[in-house]
Structure formats: structure tokens, C-alpha cells
């Protein structure tokens, strides 16, 4: 182990300015929103709530909400995904495990899966970090479409414009 220099004042805040090119932080007190309009519809019974739409690194952090009969269509991830289940439970048609409230899930690159909510669960909410792109595919892997941070931003803009929050509402989530 290398020697560590003693910090003379552990509770003294950092005294220098942050790098002038650093971006602004994002703080969202009600991550699960009170205002229903903040949920962006993406399919029947499927919504997402943006938290950080990171266009400079090509990933997005969002809450995914799926109710009852909702299905998050079959898709492939070329990059890893991290998830944390905040409410309810769900599973993938391609795996025999279930993600229950409080679970953490890592989806490695190369995963192709279809997310469904079981009978008896009204609603699930999961915090997902998605990197790069989601490729929507048929059961044999043929690509049918895709989403990336830019299509997410476009969806938010259109939705927030249509519900009266204003297209610019999405700007607070973009970095
Ligand atoms: Fe996925």
C-alpha cells in the first residue's frame, strides 16, 4: 500500500473553481414525478421519464414505467445496461429470472430481450441507464428500428410541446 498524505481539513470544501468547460449538474427532486405530463409515452402502456439525456457521451438515464399489458419490444443492446427496480416486478421472455422491487440488473452487451410485466402487477418502474443504441429486432435478429439519445430527445420535445410544458422542457435533461 502506498502512503497517503494526511488531509489537514477533511470538512473544508474544495476551494478552486470547477473546470470552465465542465457541464452543469442535474438535480431532480421528484424523480418519480407528480405531474403525469412528464412521463413520455413510447408505446401502449409504456412510458419513460428522462433524467439525463447525455448527448455528449451517447447514453441516457431514465425511469421506465410499464403497466399491465405493456411490452417493451424485443431489442438488442450492443452496449451494457444497468437497471434498478423501484416499483413492481418484471421479467424478460428470454430469461427465467424475475427482477423484483429493489433489484439491480446488469445487462451485458449482446443481450436481446423482451420486457413484460406479469399478471397481478399493475405497474413497474425501473431506473435504467442505456448506452449507445437499442436495436429493435424481429425474433431472428433482423433490425426493425432503433432508439438512441437523439431519438429520445426528439420524443421528449414532441411530447412536452403537445402537453403544454413546452418543447424546451427537455433541455434541462440534456448534457
Ligand atoms: Fe433492454
Would you identify the CATH H-level superfamily? Answer: Jelly Rolls
Overall, the morphology is globular
Bound molecules: fe (iii) ion
Query: Mean pLDDT across all residues, rounded?
Result: 96
Catalogue the unreliable spans.
none
Distance between the termini: 38 Å
Percent in helix: under 10%
Task: Give me the CATH fold name.
Answer: Jelly Rolls
What's the number of helices? 1
Query: What is the helix/strand order?
Result: EEEEEEEEEEEEH
Q: Which architecture would the CATH scheme give at its second level?
A: Sandwich
Structural class call reads: mainly beta
Radius of gyration: 19 Å
- CATH class, named Mainly Beta
Strand content: 35-45%
Largest sheet: 6 strands, antiparallel
Q: Numbering strands along the chain, what is their spatial order in the largest sheet? A: 1-2-3-10-5-8
Beta strands, count:
12
Quickly count the domains: 1
Explain what this protein looks like in three dimensions.
This protein has one domain: Jelly Rolls (Sandwich), CATH 2.60.120. Helices cover 8% and strands 41% of the residues. The chain contains 1 helix and 12 strands. A 6-stranded antiparallel sheet has the order 1-2-3-10-5-8, with helices on one face. A 6-stranded antiparallel sheet has the order 7-6-9-4-11-12. β11 and β12 form a beta hairpin. The longest helix has 14 residues. The chain starts with 39 loop residues before the first strand and ends in a 13-residue tail after the last helix. Bound molecules: fe (iii) ion.
Amino acid at each position: 500500500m502506498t502512503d497517503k498524505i494526511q488531509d489537514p481539513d477533511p470538512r473544508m470544501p474544495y476551494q478552486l473553481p470547477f473546470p470552465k468547460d465542465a457541464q452543469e449538474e442535474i438535480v431532480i427532486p421528484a424523480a418519480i414525478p407528480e405531474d403525469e405530463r412528464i412521463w413520455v409515452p413510447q408505446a401502449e402502456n409504456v412510458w419513460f421519464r428522462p433524467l439525463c439525456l447525455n448527448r455528449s457521451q451517447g447514453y441516457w438515464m431514465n425511469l421506465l414505467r410499464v403497466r399491465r399489458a405493456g411490452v417493451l419490444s424485443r431489442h438488442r443492446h450492443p452496449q451494457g445496461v444497468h437497471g434498478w427496480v423501484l416499483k413492481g416486478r418484471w421479467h424478460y421472455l428470454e430469461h427465467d429470472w424475475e427482477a423484483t422491487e429493489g433489484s439491480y440488473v446488469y445487462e451485458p452487451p449482446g443481450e436481446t430481450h423482451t420486457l413484460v410485466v406479469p399478471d397481478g402487477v399493475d405497474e413497474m418502474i425501473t431506473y435504467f441507464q442505456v448506452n449507445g443504441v437499442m436495436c429493435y429486432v424481429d425474433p431472428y435478429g433482423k433490425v426493425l428500428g432503433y432508439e438512441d439519445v437523439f431519438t429520445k430527445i426528439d420524443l421528449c420535445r414532441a411530447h412536452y410541446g403537445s402537453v403544454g410544458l413546452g418543447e424546451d422542457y427537455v433541455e434541462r435533461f440534456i448534457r
